[in-house]
Design a protein that fits this description.
It is a single chain. The protein is an alpha+beta fold and about 300 residues long. The chain folds into two domains: about 110 residues, Rossmann fold, CATH 3.40.50.10330; about 190 residues, Tumour Suppressor Smad4, CATH 2.60.200. The protein is built from nine helices and 14 strands. The strands form two sheets. Strands 5, 6, 7, 8, 9, 10, 11, 12, 13 and 14 form a ten-stranded antiparallel sheet that branches. Strands 2-1-3-4 form a four-stranded parallel sheet. Helix 2 packs across helix 3 and helix 6 packs across helix 8. It is globular, with a radius of gyration of 19 Å. About 10% of the residues have low confidence.
């Protein structure tokens, strides 16, 4: 369905306005309002401005941070305005998981303006920091451990030059920085178990850059969040983790009718609608590629069908 009024929320550090204008289909009778993000406000204020201007669709043109900010604002305001995505970042994780073109500005813009919308869920994390609690949205993944350290350890200049391959360079340092610790898990105030692990990921979507699937059961529209807890310590355990990812939840799934995620001694898969995570010591938490700081307590919930994405 072609929108009559499109609010274009764009990150000026990712694209020139002229390039975005050139990608807008010229044969559409639509109104475009432009709303620029700021360094300390990656999209929430711009989204509110676009909604106030009467936009039926908000097109988030930027990286994962812009998409997360726009999506979170739309979910929080409970508006019927739909979300379009023009991926311009390094990861472009939600776009990849939803099959939105990531290498064609023209195709992504056309999809955002003309495409049909589907409802997807929104994840929320509430974290305890020294100055109080903060609540943040995520549309792909949140967690701590290797994934968070890969983000903080990745060289920004290399990322600009090499894209997602820069994360591979940081993997070794991320592994060494992610020590095994004790984790207490609760649901709705009730203790459900203790784990010794170095990484915990909660996801609404399951696929990363390069086609790497961490959460094979993840579906952004199923009203549930998928959890991966990694416990590997030492060569044998890491080999078990690789076997679990590559064989159990990769090749075997293709060959077998059984599509459910399989756990192993070093990789535990779960599905939840809410989860409280208490850490032995503070760790850096990230959401959709953005670092939020160090915390030792994380409350995660899902908001089903929170936004509609083209």
């Amino acid at each position: 369905m072609i929108a009559k009024h499109v609010g274009l929320v764009w990150n000026p550090s990712k694209a020139e306005k002229e390039d975005l204008e050139a990608a807008i289909p010229s044969d559409r009778d639509i109104t475009i309002s432009w709303h620029e993000t700021e360094e300390d406000d990656p999209g929430a204020s711009a989204t509110r401005s676009a909604v106030a201007a009467g936009a039926e669709v908000i097109v988030a043109a930027g990286g994962d941070g812009t998409v997360r900010a726009v999506a979170g604002q739309l979910a929080e305001s409970r508006t019927e305005v739909e979300l379009g995505i023009v991926p311009l970042g390094t990861g472009n994780l939600l776009a990849r998981n939803l099959g939105i073109p990531v290498n064609s500005l023209d195709e992504a813009m056309t999809r955002a303006i003309d495409g049909n919308a589907r409802s997807i869920d929104m994840g929320w994390v509430e974290i305890t920091l020294p100055h109080g609690t903060e609540r943040h949205p995520f549309v792909v993944m949140a967690g701590f451990g290797i994934d968070a350290h890969m983000i903080t350890e990745t060289d920004d200049e290399l990322k600009d030059k090499a894209g997602w391959l820069a994360y591979v360079e940081s993997l070794g340092r991320a592994v060494s920085a992610s020590d095994v610790m004790e984790i207490k898990l609760s649901r709705e105030g009730e203790h459900v178990g203790d784990e010794s692990a170095h990484t915990l990921i909660v996801g609404n979507c399951g696929t990363l850059q390069g086609g790497i699937t961490l959460l094979p059961d993840a579906d952004p529209s199923d009203g549930e969040l998928d959890v991966l807890i990694l416990k590997a310590e030492g060569l044998t355990s890491w080999l078990d983790t690789m076997r679990n990812m590559v064989w159990d939840n990769g090749i075997r799934r293709i060959m077998s009718a059984d599509s459910s995620a399989q756990s192993s001694d070093s990789a535990l898969h779960q599905r939840v609608t809410s989860l409280t995570i208490e850490l032995e010591s503070p760790r850096i938490i990230e959401v959709d590629g953005d670092e939020l700081g160090e915390t030792s307590k994380i409350d995660v919930t899902i908001e089903p069908s929170a936004i509609r994405v083209r």
